[in-house]
Design a protein that fits this description.
5 helices; 32% helix; globular
Length: 154
């Protein structure tokens, strides 16, 4: 990692610095949420048992949230009642890529899932960019082990 960063769980007051990160998600054309909706969703997410939003914070002034991912640990009845985890919303500011920040937040999420006894971590991406897919390969995720399906409402 080129720059000194603190990897930590997001706090409620991080939302204004976190929202710009989501504009850097690959393969997204989603509109930004209304401020009240974003604030309510973020508050619910931070209160949710098993959910953690990890951030890579660079020193300021002002401090910059340069990378993020969200981990959700899901209780499970199979696999010896061991939980599994989902990682979503992996994003790094474009001008801070290739510095290890995205890898650092992913590593923090995977480590947290393992510490909580999860038997697997699932990460899906909508990106078709080979550079993004190689990033997940290097982070230890394996392609082609499952087939994902989704239903979306626009």
């Amino acid at each position: 990692m080129t720059l000194p960063a603190t990897i930590r769980a997001a706090r409620p007051d991080d939302l204004p610095r976190l929202l710009p990160l989501f504009r850097h998600l690959d393969a997204t054309d989603e509109a930004a949420p209304e401020p009240d909706a974003a604030r309510d969703a973020f508050a619910r997410l931070l209160r949710m048992e098993g959910a953690t939003v990890f951030v890579a914070e660079l020193p300021g002034p002002p401090p910059v949230l340069a990378a993020t991912c969200t981990l959700v640990v899901v209780p499970n009845i199979t696999h010896g009642a061991r939980s599994h985890a989902l990682i979503e919303n992996v994003a790094t500011l474009a001008d801070h890529r290739q510095q290890g920040l995205g890898s650092a937040v992913l590593h923090a999420a995977v480590t947290a899932a393992q510490a909580q006894g999860c038997y697997k971590v699932v990460l899906t991406t909508g990106s078709k960019r080979e550079s993004t897919l190689r990033f997940y390969d290097r982070a230890g995720f394996q392609r082609g082990t499952r087939t994902a399906f989704q239903i979306r409402w626009e």
